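Next up, sample data.

:::
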Amino acid sequence: MAVFRDQLLCEAEKRGEPVSDLKKTLDVLGPQGFLREVIRSYLHDRGFVQQAQESLAGTTARALGISVRQLVFCIEDGRVGRMLLDRFAGTG
């Protein structure tokens, strides 16, 4: 996970975000929060920026072209990771 954390911090620096703030945030969030930030960053790098009033689930569903309800079913089935990778194969 350390490699992914370093990559996440490097990408934040490229976007001009305060890296020290992100480090503190990741420490507080723990493993699940870290995974959320990886997904958020992955989507952001592919042009899907989370809107102010949008949940991460909403952003993810929008990126996949499905409803949040459909996304919930995909998460329950353990398919969402593969769907994201398939959707963005060859990008980023």
Notes: Helices lie at 2-14, 19-45, 56-64, 68-76, 80-87.
